[in-house]
């Protein structure tokens, strides 16, 4: 491993930092590293799924063009994850003058203290190395953010200690943007940033410098600026001022997963399902698909606010709650293994209702009612996928003959199977979904319960809290007795 330079003189011996040679900007650095990854066919953003043909190529284009850019998208579309993943396009380490607050380039210092340090110590000036992870600075935009937070302000205490005038550059306290020098500066939810603060970003984006507190302090910062925003805020409310939008090189729109498989890969990656312990709850694939379908159906539901969106965090939290419900049931019943059931989806309603922003019609119905309807619709859709051609007539006839079945959400698998075995043909059909059709396997009980829930979703049987599953009997109309009326009188 090559020894890192500890002084300015040692750094000048490095061919990459020879005096008089070209000095790479951060945008040049990221451009070169992006091209290296593309040539080596390396993944660009770890953990980002569903954007391979849409969002990621546009981000690469912006980086290759050395553009600042903004990501537009609803909540839960991996905007922050993408911005934080940009650090992978930076060099592993970066040299800077030790002690510098804005991490000046040793060969091109821009702050007064670093220039004075080099003038005093020359090649003996100490060099420090900054890892790529520290070169990313992120700020969540809120209405209370001030220009001093972003750019900086005069520090009276520093002026008093050093005996310098307030207008001296060495009395400045640098804000987040100067401290992100030679790195990436990200602002989340840009429309929430006050207009006068947005104006303060003009110079750095166009001219490449900042001015602090009205003093003629010019800092030609080397920084990549990236932003996120909600499309509704960005276009309808107009909270991003026009000159700032004009200075952005690219506007890139994100989106929710296009397919259930893409959504499942995201949820599987993010959800905490591999729990420690011996129980090891299992979530069948058909139930995972149902959880994803809840989000897909909710995004198309007119009673749910589309401007707010339905975050991918909904299926992530829902899956974690489903696993917890199965884990709790197995622990209470002393079962060695647990398999999630469709009833556990209803136990996970608190993970769904809190992530739905309802329109007026939805508010009238109530969040829990809407969530239950979403679960029923999702079960029905996945049920059709697996049992579209199945012959379920024997199951329907059992209920039409007067059979009723009420399953307890907390009952162990073997007790549920005792009840489910009474229904002719149910366990045989459930065996196609279950991983093992042995009598004591929780997966068989889970599959059988899913079939009954799917039949209810398609209105082939009925269900309520009191009776469980049953069939509505057609109402018989009793014949009306003839009325003994007197004969009508005949008139000539």
CATH fold description of the largest domain: Rossmann fold
Low-pLDDT sequence parts? none
Helix content: 40-55%
Q: How many strands, which pairing sense, and closed or not: the largest β-sheet?
A: 5 strands, parallel
State the CATH architecture of the largest domain: 3-Layer(aba) Sandwich
At the first level of CATH, the class of the largest domain is: Alpha Beta
- Number of strand elements: 11
Shape: elongated
CA gyration radius, whole angstroms = 33 Å
By CATH, the superfamily of the largest domain comes out as: P-loop containing nucleotide triphosphate hydrolases
Q: How much strand?
A: 5-15%
Number of helices: 23
Q: How many domains is the backbone divided into? A: 2
Question: How far is the first residue's CA from the last residue's CA?
Answer: 127 Å
Question: Can you put this structure into words, describing what you see?
Answer:
The chain has 23 helices and 11 strands. By secondary structure, the protein is α/β, with parallel strands linked by helices. The chain has 2 domains: 8-253, P-loop containing nucleotide triphosphate hydrolases (Rossmann fold); 260-470, no CATH class. It has a 5-stranded parallel beta sheet with strand order 4-7-8-1-9. A two-stranded antiparallel ribbon has the order 2-3. Strand 10 and strand 11 (468-470) form a beta hairpin. It starts with 7 loop residues before the first helix and ends in a 22-residue tail after the last strand. The mean pLDDT is 87.
